[in-house]
Amino acid sequence: MSWMHHLLYLIIASFGFIFVQLLRLKFSPRGAVWAKLDAVGATPGDCLPSFARDVLSSIVLTRKFANEGYRKFNKALDRPYALPTPWVRGSSVMVLPPSQIPLLARLDKTGDSEWTNLRGLVETTQLPYIIDDANIYQNVLHFDIVRQKMAHRDMSRLAPVTADEIDHSFRDIWGTDVEWRTINGWEACGRIISRAAQRILIGLPLSRDETMLETSRHYANSLLVGGAIINCFPPSIRWLVAPLIAVRARYFQARYVKMLLPLVQERISQWEAGKDGGPDDFLQWMIAICARDPEQLNATRIALRLASLLTPLIFAICYVFAHCVLGIHGSADRADILAGLEEECARVSAQHGGLATSASTDALRRVDSVLRESMRVSDVSVTNIFRDVVAGEVDVGHGLRVGPGVRMVFPTQDIHLDPDNYVDPERFDAFRFSRSFENGDRRGGEQEFITTATPSFMPFGYGRHVCPGRWFAAQSMKQTLAYLVLNYDVELVGPPSKRKALLNMMVPPVDTQIRIRQKV
Ligand code: HEM
Ligand SMILES: *[C@@H]1O[C@H](CO)[C@@H](O)[C@H](O)[C@H]1NC(C)=O
Asked: What are phi and psi for residue 94, nearest 5 degrees?
């Protein structure tokens, strides 16, 4: 994917100049709240060239800016601050301090104000440039299905299905060779995860179709990369560049939808013919819900909704899983971590007669801890949990009232790496969350699992919109990691790669090579 880096630098360089000019022309009037806010770097009130320079630098320096703002304003003064970014109109987002996390429990709509998380989600990938039918991302009924059908209680039903798929995919994709061979670590992890995810999404046999799988992985990746690149351009010139950048994602989306359509049509006709039951997969759950509204029982629409779920289902899970595998093998404590994991997986597997049930995955406390720890140190983004006020004003403390036109975000990465929250926070300490709960010791309270969102652990968000897919993500990642630990030897080729931010996104290690062989 290094074409993406070249393209990116080219774009940044050639548009830097135009950007400054356009920013000057199109600079929009800003809400009064910005005037009362501290800022990292230049403020909009400063001379335009230096503000424009900082907005442009945020493409590569967001992480550094955010660290500084977190320290100086969020922590020292308990105040929000303005972080420069071309992502939004007005060229700054408001980063709220940790003391405002309780706001995330509020109803979206209260007596005097309303806010939404959808705009930020949609604008991370810039969906409107990819999907022509706005209903897909404005009327998110597929979110409700995740909430209803992928809840904690559903995991025991899904566990044997994903376990079966993971076993098949490892054998097909990683193979059974006992000789070392070198593969791309990101892709190797991604291909296993996408098969498990796709199995739950559309069921056999289509879920194992190689072209379908490749298309879905390319779609999820190009959507995220494309979205990140579009967001490097200020909103006022996106109309010009975004359609070009979006071509790749649109192409894979069209292919995916085309391959999926016959299956969706067949399922709809079966449903209409009154046949009860049908397979236990996302497509079927969706048809049952869409059938309530003739506008929604539209095969293209349903296929597009499934496509839009590929980002969390494939990209996000793959991101976390691949970072965890690379984190373990790049750690100085690698041997101890692997020994600890292997011991636990073998023991739990023996007790439960395999690892294909929820009860057995729930018993994998160290596996849970290492994944949670990896999510803590290897965040997907610098800031996360986006909120846009759509009506009225939201009080964010210190007499600051925020109205429409301001995007609020939380400094999640800084919270996860704050020494006040974690001892030795930069260290990847695999059993940080399980250590004190070994041997059934409950004196320290209950173990915090991957799925436990706390004010110091928010990779899945927090509060009212906390990720409803986290039960599935956690269970399938635990199953996959346990399988890997029990069945394969893995080594990193070369040193672990340094993590870089592209705007708000932490760029994944897409070029890291690993050596693998099946255990004898
Ligand atoms: C490791 C993988 C994942 C990560 C890191 C992740 C992260 C997140 C985060 C941070 C949010 C919060 C958004 C907010 O508060 O505004 C969220 C929401 C959401 N996630 Fe995930 N997610 C993952 C996997 C999944 C999966 C597998 C699914 C579905 C199958 C899913 C479906 C959703 C949905 C529907 C929402 C919106 C909830 C709402 O608006 O109330 N996620 N996710
Ligand atoms: C089905 O949805 C697609 C796009 O989402 C739309 O273009 C098409 O007109 C819809 N078909 C019907 C019959 O409404």
From this structure: -100, 120
Express each pLDDT in 85-127 by its tens digit: 888 888 899 999 999 999 999 999 999 999 999 999 999 999 9
Q: How confident is the model at residue 25 (pLDDT cuts 50, 70, 90)?
A: very low
Ordered structural domains, the chain, with CATH: 2-120 (no CATH), 135-380+419-455+459-518 (1.10.630.10)
- Edge-to-edge, what's the strand order for the sheet holding 38-39? 38-39, 81-84, 92-95, 407-410, 384-392, 113-116
Residues having CB closer than 6 A to ligand 1 are 117, 143, 146, 150, 309, 312-313, 316-317, 320, 380, 384-386, 459-461, 465, 467-469, 472-473
- CA Rg, the chain, in Å? 23
pLDDT of residue 336: 97
CA distance linking residue 3 with residue 39, whole number of Å = 34
E-strand spans in 371-512? Answer: 384-392, 394-395, 401-402, 407-410, 488-493, 501-502, 505-506
Query: Going by C-beta distance under 8 Å and a sequence separation of 6 or more, which residues neighbour residue 201?
Result: 207, 281, 282, 283, 306, 309, 313
CB-CB contact of 259 with 211 (8 Å)? yes
Atom of ligand 1 nearest to the CA of 319: 1
Write the DSSP symbol of residue 434: T
Alpha-carbon span 19 to 318, nearest angstrom: 34
**Tell me, what's the pLDDT at 516?**
97
- pTM given for the model: 0.93
Q: Which residue CA neighbors atom 40 of ligand 1 most closely?
A: 465
Q: For residue 34, give Cα distances in angstroms to 78, 83, 401.
A: 16, 11, 10
Give the pLDDT confidence score for residue 520 in this predicted structure: 87
For residue 47, pLDDT beyond 70: no
Question: Please, which residues bridge with residue 344 across strands?
Answer: none
Judged by DSSP in three states, 449 sits in coil
Contact 46, 35 (CB under 8 A): no
- Which atom of ligand 2 sits closest to the CA of residue 135? 5
What is the distance in A from the centroid of ligand 1 to the CA of 463? 12
Distance 440 CA to ligand 1 centre (A): 31
The angle, 0 to 180 degrees and rounded to 10, between the axes of the packed helices 247-272 and 282-290 is 70
Two structure tokens written together for 303: 């296929």
Tens-place pLDDT, residues 470-519: 999 999 999 999 999 999 999 999 888 888 998 999 999 989 999 999 99
Residue percentage of the chain with pLDDT more than 90: 75
**Given a cut of 90, is residue 215 above it in pLDDT?**
yes
> Are the C-beta atoms of residues 69 and 369 closer than 8 Å to each other?
no
pLDDT of 333? 96
d(CA 176, CA 185): 17
